[in-house]
User: Fold this.
Amino acid sequence: MAEVTLDGVCKRFRGREVIPELSLTVRDGELFILVGPSGCGKSTIMHLIAGLEAPSAGRILFDGQDVTPLSPRDRDVALVFQSYALYPHMTVADNLAFPLRVVKRQTGLTQAQIVSEVGRIAELLGISGVLDRRPRELSGGQRQRVALGRALSRQPRVFLLDEPLSNLDAQLRAVMRTELRRLHDQLGITMIYVTHDQTEAMTLADRLAVLDRGRLQQVGKPRELYDRPANRFVAQFVGSPSMNMLEAKIKDGGARTPLFDLPICLPSLRAHEGQSVVLGIRPESLIIGDEPSTSELSEKIERVGSGIVRLVELSGGQTWVTVEVGRHPKDGLLVGAGSRALHISPGDRVSLSLSEAESACHLFDPTTGGRLGGA
Amino acid sequence: MIVAWMKSTWNRSFDVLVMALIASICLGPALWQLVTSVKPDADLVRLPPLLPDRLTGAHYTAVIAGSTLWRELLNSGLVAAATTGAALILGSLCAFAVARLPIRGKGVILGLVLSISMFPPIAVISPLYLLIRELGLRDTLSALILTHTTFALPLAIWILVSFFNQVPRELYWAARVDGCSPLRALLSVVIPAALPGLAVAALLVFIYSWNEFMFALTLTATPNSRTAPVAIALFPGLHEIPWGDMAAASMIVTAPIVVLALLFRRSIVAGLTAGSVKG
Amino acid sequence: MTPAHATERPPQRERARASWSLSESHWGYLFTTPALSLLILLALIPISGAVWLGFQRRLPIFGIQEFVGWQNYLTLIQDGRFWGACATTLYFTVVSVSAELVLGFGLALFLHRLSTRPVSERTGGTPGLAGSWMQAVVLVPWAIPTVVSARMWEWLYQPEQGLLNYLLLSTGVVREPVGWLIDPWWAIHAAIMMDVWKATPFAALLLLAGLKTIPQELYQAARVDGAGTWAIFRHITLPLMVPAILIVLIFRTMDAFRVFDAVYVLTGGGPGNSTETLSIYAYTMLFQTLQFGYGSALASIMFAGIVLITGIYLLFMRPRLQE
Assistant:
């Protein structure tokens, strides 16, 4: 177990910067997730930590010790691949034992110890029944478990997982997510996990880092990223459906946007008087109601405008409603939340209201995309 | 309906006819050689009859008992086996480095390998002959193994690179992370995963070495190191070739290689294509 | 939870190991070294040696070894036998390679048809079975050692006892026995025929692999668009087969240009010098008259020829492949 630090790490491939410059610390025993759209350099970072690739500049430290010049075998890390990379010619037992056999000379493990260790791992992951099978005879979930087991069998200092669940179907993915969390808590091992799926990242991580084109956008606990996204990219990447973004101008302490009939007035907006901003509103804060009935509106809910329903999506307890707003058609499409009791269909006119406006509104700089002010 | 039936019948008959034609052209000469090898001498000097009234094993006994063919077959086997082993070991290492390791000059290596496979053997034979003589290796099996390995290496490397490239990169990485050195990763993970490719390379190298003629002819002088093709080419008979014995000898030399080729024809076709089309 | 083997490794040892542990690229150079040294030692150095020998007068049995500059080449230009060998080699190459390409293409199309034709309801059977058997049959000429096939054909070509003349005479195709290996005109064609027999399967298998890469949807789309068999072949199959055809041409041209064993065993270069290719002439100079200098000059010319042919093909290939 170890604390992992990337110190000014930079990676170029044939003159192209994949990772411009990255500094990051993963705490000892933490389940840390790197998340970002595909092609953002997540896997490259994993390879750099594992030692499969050398950084063009910068250092990588485990517990303060510089491991940059060490080859993968000397770093004592384990890596679970998206494709699992199980050795096709070996049985499950041999796959699990392989990392132990390779370092047998250094650790002085006996054959019996290896067998018992393999048994323990298989027990832990519930694959004792398939030990003598070959990888191609296993189901996707079993392969996944074997891949985890092979990584765990050597008790690595750092446990790296590169999109480990993306080859599984949705149901199995949820099961394995819980399982991974349980394994992590049980073993207390430092886990660094890469995924493009923000839901997975938000539900699983102790802390996570959002990456875009090799650059670190924000690091923090899931809640922090959700509540206070550092910029437009993070705001839109985290949360589902994605955050609504509206161009607005602050005037007289209210945010005015052509899409809404009424300005949104908040005390915190006064600091940006006269500025053009991008106003971010999460769909769950944008309440959709039947146009005529305004009786539901309580103090905390503030009516801001109206629009025409274009799409109604039921997602569990929530109803997501895509609404066309503005005077001209195609002015803007916003996604809001409707209550379960709401009965509307495309073409209906509905009202838009903000729930808890103070925390619902995020302001971003229209040019840099950075978060504005304390709001 | 009837038209369709007639059409399919016509198609089938056409196919069968062409297949018969191809088969007789491809197999005819070899089958005729087989017939010749069991014909009594008296039937060899005239045609007809096409087929003999009685079969004889005399030519086979004559070749096996009366010549050094068995020795030359043994030489061929030894040279081909050693060449296969050496070319596979050297070829795997080199092909693996080209396919998976971060080295400079991969293009140069592949270019060199390709151009050497294009060399006319006649262009290297004279200095090679002088070199081998200088080393005191003339008329030894080692001389043949060395040259055959050298000139089979391009083939082996070319095929192995294409097969190693098909082994997922992640398998190699997994082995490295699991604590293997590159050599160990190659031996215990990459090679087992690319075993079909190794088999293909082994077959093609073996066949090359078994059939090779110019080096074998030049670098050997006596039956001690002569290989089977050379023996066939230099078959005794000053003016009149003993065709029955010759046919028997050809059958013996050809049989192992044809059996090998037919048994592994899928691999061979895959290898011929991997070695060329992929390039 | 801590297993027996999870002993802490002292950091010093880690560092010491790191200092001598090879980087990936060092392993790479280490791995390529044995193969490359062998190739350099026994292929590159000899080829340079041949060029060097070409500038010498060297007769090992008389212990003669002297530098003569371009003299061997000047002699070559005036050597009628050399020009004859050049003409023979070119004729052999052009005729046999064209024949192999055309026949090989036909054979490949037929094999492809066997493997893709839908199973007829009446006969049942696996669609690929016939194709698979035919592939095996076709592989036989390729697998037979060249020397052996030369002997086989020599036997077939015998004027009196040979099967070929017997078949031609008894079916009335010819009146008199053909002097396959006796008549100079026939001898070169006999050699070409044998080469075609032996190498067409190789060409066909490569072309078949090329045909298999053409998606079936293209043919179906063309048929829906109303294209006939010839139009499909002309506008779909042929253009898509250009890379495969070029590969076959390169491989076959190289092999035909440097042909040695087939012709050497079949005719020995005769009758007269009518089938003497450059390889055979060079070999005769080197190992029968033991003129190492002159023979090496000849071999160097051949090497230059190969380089030239490769260059021409590459020139043709580059724009085609970029399309």
In short: The interface with chain A takes residues 1, 3-7, 9, 11, 14, 17-18, 21, 23-24 of chain C (CB under 8 Å). The mean pLDDT of chain C is 81. The beta strands of chain C are 56-59, 64-67.
